[in-house]
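Model it.
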Amino acid sequence: MTTPTTPFPSATVLGYPRIGRNRELKRALESHWAGRSSAEELATAAKDLRAATVTRLRDLGLTESSAVPLDFAHYDQVLDVTLALGAVPARFAGTADGAVDGATGTGVELALARGTAEQPPLEMTKWFDSNYHYLVPEIGPETPLAYRGSARVEHVREAAALGVVGRPVIVGPVTYLLLAKPADGAPEDFRPLDRLDDVVAAYGDWLRELRAAGAEWVQLDEPALVSDLWEAPREEVKAAAERAYRSLVAQADRPSILVAAPYGPLGCAVDPLLAAGVEAIAVDLVRGEVPAASSPDGTPRDFSGVRLVGGVVDGHNVWRTDLDAATERLAALEELAGSPVAVATSTSLLHVPHTVADEINDDAAGAPATLPARVASWLAFADEKVGEVIALASGPEQVAEAFAANRAALADRASAPGVVDPAVRERAAALSASSFSREPYAERRAAQEVSLAGLPTLPTTTIGSFPQTSELRKARAALRRGELVEAAYVEAMRDEVASVIALQEELGLDVLVHGEPERNDMVQYFAELLDGFAVTRNGWVQSYGSRCTRPSILWGDVSRPAPMTLEWATYASSLTGKPVKGMLTGPVTILAWSFVRNDIPLGDTANQVALALRDEVTDLEAAGIQVVQVDEPALRELLPLRKAAHEEYLAWSVGSFRLATSGVRPETQIHTHLCYSEFELVLPAINALDADVTSIEAARSRMELLPAAAGFERGIGPGVWDIHSPRVPSTEELVELIGLALESVGERQLWVNPDCGLKTRGYAETRQTLENLVAAATTVRARVAG
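Modeled.
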């Protein structure tokens, strides 16, 4: 058997949403985790979902051989590689269900993803500049790295049984190792990339098994090649890519190789792929550009032996593609290649919902669509993007009607009322330097020591949300269906706020929160109250594992017609003598976790959102709220993947936060929260935010981020409880983590808090862990005082 020679399809997508059109995978996973269904039932549900996806993509028009991507994962595509290679950390030895097998290791998959009673799960962080999260591999010099089997092989056979030759999608070897962290106990000079040859050998075995199963093409995703944020120099990364792909190309009995490089410009990293002789390269032409005809040294690039795949349909956002402009970009790519190119999405469609059709039609229960029909006409979700790819591959002469409809929709969007609001534009244009600054921190700290005089050393707090119980979700759904009147809903939410305040008083927390029972989501709640936004009914996308988010759609200029949080904060404050935080989501996070407009600069939109939040912050202060938290967990998420673009990004992102928070007196304490962040990469930006207290995620990494905070002068709350796992840390464990924090942070600066909000946790584990957290803070407080 030799490498197949089937041509690459003329139209494809780099991936497809895997959670299910109605979140079937989420429900199946959570049912299994809760013990309500067996592993066999989970496997059946997952297989049915895969079959529905393959059939759907074929019926949408991806009919050529290898046009349908096979990228299903139970939990995470990076975790799938870890399982396939048997790269399970030694601390999990003997846990789960025995042997580590990428094809059948559901139990160990669960242990790595969610932890066990004895061991915390793998660390989780952002996937490049998206809101998806992956599980960080832990690789050391002795980590087992050999192909152990993969469910991807069976997925190829399943597709074949449906009459489809599918294209398996796998995280590439270079990206996998660059995303990994050194395992505990690894030498200081060790880097996971040092194990490249071992990983490539395992991939060679993997590719041969995929070919034997019938795969003609395999897609290896290498987004690491568009970034220069790695510890390894860019030239070393390029050399690793050439070495890896020369080896894989030389393998006998393998599928043809497509290397996909989404999320940015591939630039000179195209050279090692050309030198290695891979059969196809997919380039992102939405966030990137057509590669240059010559290398930086002037050597002409030879594209004659490779199929170029133009990612001209945005897989990262929901707006209709400008088909005419995309056609021009494809023509430029074809001129470079000197031969026909394939059409694709810029990234996997993992980042967008399934279909706009679910927003236009009423469902069987009669619930109306929440998305205005006019806004819906400007959008393309996953299924619609497949149609755009096929239209572009066909060309304007063959599908003239589709191109004409596209032009009409784009023109309508540009002229629609609300897209431009003169009052919003005038207010933003009138901003001055003083709009972005507060009094010096030393002055603020002195004022806050008086206004918040009751706070002890190592004050305890939570990040904002408390568990969203089934009763709360049912009440919200009943209100939406008209089965519960507004007054009854508000009363139910007030009862929950009172219960949350009472619980925190009982536990002995120092700065309280109202628990956010009224909020369906930390961004959507505000989107529903701000002009310029629309929300969806079924626009779910996967965040991690079974967790889904429903991003709002920011389509016009933003303003605040009325206060948004004031009623809830003041009510909660009336129930206690302790400080209660006002809780807001920051401008950068609102943008990052929405599908943001693409017709004006992102920084301009950020300032519009910031001005709306500024009005809310000053209203809270006027009502007596002494502490206001403005969360920015996505600050790191939007950080560009190239260092050259950081300065411009940090200028507008930091500026928008300061604009939102700089209208208050020195006595008012401003908090912010960041999670899933490589802290050292954004430390200058965190300093520049000028918040009085910053809380960060640190529990999974056991405070390894904190040495980078040496010299940080303001308050800091490194999380000591990983709320993304159901395990309850003991008091002793929390005491140890607080002690580790004190090695890098002064006692007058340190706050004690969880990693993130408690929305996804249950009340039993919340109560127990917060009891342990308060006890741990009390213990360490006594040691510090003694």
